[in-house]
């Protein structure tokens, strides 16, 4: 049996765009339940300006109050050295950097050129070099940009290289607005893994146009074994009007479990946490397994 | 470029379980628009008892009033010889037979044992043998039964064999309640196509647990080139409580188009017909591309 890592992003990527602020205690409770369910990594929060992302203004309190399990990596998104300092104070296991492959998207998202973003990352890498905090580098709009359209594969490879020169431990290729198709995923991931066979490579998909889990399948065929997903399918992108959310963690785990992949996470626990998430949010989530049940949930005759 | 056939089932599989009866004129209009969009086959209606499926009580009028295009196959579901007679009068190009691989599901669905169903199919085949109406044999619950659970692959092969002995021109493996996973799809389809390499084999998936398009990908890897889908993702199964619908035609075509598969159908036309379908039904459909737009629909900066 091959093993797959499930990396949960709902507490950051999902909650940041919810209409309502989720109280700190409930965030902590949600993250603790996700830890208990056995996901491999949790993006806990982001250390950005509370003005930019008011929903995550409690980043420090959340990161310092959760119960940390030794098998779980607790990561946080950071935009700059100040964020790195905050993450270091809270003893995050990892920080996650994000730059868009698309210049236009990067400008819209963080008001910097891609070069400016990497210069900032260099400062972050210097700051963190004396610590035991790992750095993950995410490339947003890897498979397409809602403004620019197609993304050049060679540019993706070049930016992966930039990240690796900074000493990042892992790379995430993110399909920020759900533009990837399965054939494209296979092709690009093969290119990346042929050049860097031992790179800890994560795929981050959105299900905007229904292709999310199909893209996971081709990512697996290409050799990828780490996937971001969001409980209940929470999330989306403010720069992609009309978009639905990230791929749904419990739907992903349900599919992979019945394909006989080994995962640390417990599917039943995860489904329970997703139902709990609905009570926190006060609205339904996009996940389908919590509606239809697992394929092994048989009906009485 | 490899070619893929898109077979539309919304007029039958979708409309049959809508809460409201769709007026005959609108059904005809919908089917004509689907023909114009360029789908390869349309399941127009079913010649069953109007008491059993009141939504399709206008089967004759619909089948006789639509504009028939020579490149499109117009098929109808039939349960018995009486249905075959009605289909023959209306000059359907093809009739579609359905039996469940699961005894329990067949009993629930048509109140017959699987053997009784095949005895009835034998009578239908005899009746149609002098006509130019093709026969397609569908196996429901091929990948799992909501009552019995797992389905034995050898039993599927045996029933395909039964169908072929009756002289059917094509076989459809249907995942009636959305229980198939991608690995299972690949394995079973390889088995079927290794035994019958030239069999016109269709896969019919539901997106009940989000795996629909992922299953298509593995069907393609296994060599399948014909897929049923339902405009807007309409449909479902009354015997699978909580289930969402069939895989969505325009989402399927959108994915395959950007994977460079050749299809007769025009994606933009299809998206237009799906929006028209929403106006007919008076409610939103499950399709995602009509909400998010195609990946080539860029946003202004």
Textual characterization of the structure:
- 2 copies of one chain form a homodimer.
- Chain A contains 12 helices and 8 strands.
- By secondary structure, chain A is of the alpha/beta class.
- Chain A has a single domain, classed as TIM Barrel.
- In chain A, helix 2 packs antiparallel against helix 11 (267-281), helix 8 (182-195) packs parallel to helix 9 (212-222) and helix 10 packs antiparallel against helix 11 (267-281).
- An 8-stranded parallel barrel of chain A has the order 1-2-3-4-5-6-7-8, surrounded by 7 helices.
- Chain A has helices at residues 10-14, 24-37, 59-65, 81-89, 103-110, 114-128, 153-165, 182-195, 212-222, 249-258, 267-281, 289-292; strands spanning 5-8, 41-46, 73-77, 94-100, 134-140, 170-174, 201-204, 226-229.
How would you summarize this macromolecular structure in one to three sentences?
The structure is a homodimer of 301-residue chains. Chain A has 301 residues and is an alpha/beta fold.
């Amino acid at each position: 049996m091959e093993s797959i890592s499930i990396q949960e992003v709902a507490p950051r990527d999902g909650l940041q765009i919810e209409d309502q602020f989720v109280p700190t205690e409930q965030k902590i409770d949600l993250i603790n339940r996700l830890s208990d369910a056995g996901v491999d990594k949790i993006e806990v929060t982001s250390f950005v300006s509370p003005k930019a992302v008011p929903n995550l203004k409690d980043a420090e309190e959340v990161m310092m109050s959760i119960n940390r399990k030794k098998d779980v990596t607790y990561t946080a998104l950071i935009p700059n050295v100040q964020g790195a300092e905050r993450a270091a104070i809270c003893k995050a296991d990892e920080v996650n950097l994000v730059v868009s492959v698309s210049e236009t998207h990067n400008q819209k998202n963080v008001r910097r050129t891609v070069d400016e973003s990497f210069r900032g990352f260099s400062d972050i890498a210097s700051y963190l070099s004396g610590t035991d905090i790992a750095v993950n580098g995410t490339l947003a709009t890897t498979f397409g940009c809602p403004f620019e359209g197609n993304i050049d594969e060679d540019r993706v490879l070049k930016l992966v290289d930039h990240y690796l020169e900074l000493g990042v431990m892992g790379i995430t290729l993110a399909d920020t607005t759900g533009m990837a198709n399965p054939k494209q995923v296979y092709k690009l991931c093969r290119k990346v893994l042929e050049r860097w066979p031992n790179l800890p490579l994560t795929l981050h998909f959105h299900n905007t146009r229904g292709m999310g889990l199909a893209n996971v399948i081709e990512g697996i065929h290409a050799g990828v074994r780490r996937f971001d997903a969001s409980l209940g399918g929470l999330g989306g992108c403010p720069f992609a009007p009309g978009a639905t959310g990230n791929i749904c963690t419990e739907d992903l785990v349900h599919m992979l479990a019945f394909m006989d992949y080994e995962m640390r996470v417990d599917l039943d626990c995860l489904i329970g946490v997703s139902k709990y998430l609905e009570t926190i949010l006060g609205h339904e989530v996009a996940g389908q397994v919590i509606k239809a049940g697992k394929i092994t949930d048989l009906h009485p005759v």
